[in-house]
Design goal:
The protein is of the alpha+beta class. It contains 11 helices and 9 strands. The protein has 2 domains: 87 residues; 231 residues, Bira Bifunctional Protein, Domain 2 (BirA Bifunctional Protein, domain 2), CATH 3.30.930.10. It is elongated, with a radius of gyration of 40 Å. The structure holds 3,4-dihydroxyphenylalanine.
Length: 338
Amino acid sequence: MNERIAAAEAEALERIASAVDERALEEARVAVTGRKGSMSLLAAAMKDVPKEDKAAVGQRLHDAREAVARALCEKQERLRAEADRKALAGIDVTLPARALPVGSLHPLTLIRDRAIEILRRLGFALADGPEIEDEFHCFDALNTPADHPARNEKDTFYFDSGKLLRTHTSSVQVRAMESSPPPLRIVVPGSAYRRDEIDATHLSVFNQLEGLYVDGDVSLPDLKGTLEFFFRELFGGHIEVRFRPHFFPFTEPSFEIDVKLGVPGREPRWIEVAGCGMVDPAVFDAVCRSRNDRAYDPDRVTGFAFGMGLDRLAMIRWGIRDIRALVENDTRFLAQFA
Ligand code: DAH
């Protein structure tokens, strides 16, 4: 029996040693230690070994099996290491990894999110409305008569149905008041559309941010304080803010807001950034008629509203000279905001 064991062990070690790859090694492993393998057959033969020899022969078989198992293990490691070496031949694994391209937020998204964040801290809630609007919400309810130039076919995109692409986000003021009673404090980011010739400062689709605050006793100082705070938070505490009388159909009095700030490489100068004013009583009246109640009775509520172009704010904030850069998706431009 001992000779059979020695012969089987030698044959097994030889077979393992000559395996050229992992597949051949696996075949050797099955042939030696598998259910019908040479070592397993020897183990089965132990039952015929005379009782007095069992301990010694058993020990011998145990040693042989250990040796074979060790050889299998070592050979496997050697084959794997060899395969790794071949796979890496000619590759410098110490080279630093190539950086993965990381995306970044678009400047319009950055400025919009920042503006909303500031206004939310002041209690303004996010609201929105449809981009395909009717004339009532875009114009009539906002005290903008049928002969107003903004309603001209040359300035506005009309559908055959009479609906139109909203020319400003101010239409959402009306919708918000129709659906919620005062007090109301909303901020509305969104697209607006005009038939503008496209050039360095005009696109036919642009982005606005609208605000509205209505309550029992909202005053002009509230408007000034809120918007001065807003623009200082947005552009920095050092800037100056001024309110210049203007006209909008839906507010009375109305103002344009200018900020004085230094664009890189230029003297600080006044730049127009928004329109605003106290909500015109005619707007409240239109809302009352539409709601069919007196919740927005102009004798009981007052409010202020404001609107600004987000594209323009982004251009001022980062010194962008051509508005088209905001829609061209040139990654060389966009990567600067990463
Ligand atoms: N809707 C105006 C525009 O598109 C901007 C604006 C001005 C909005 C005054 C307002 C406001 O709410 O009070 O030019």
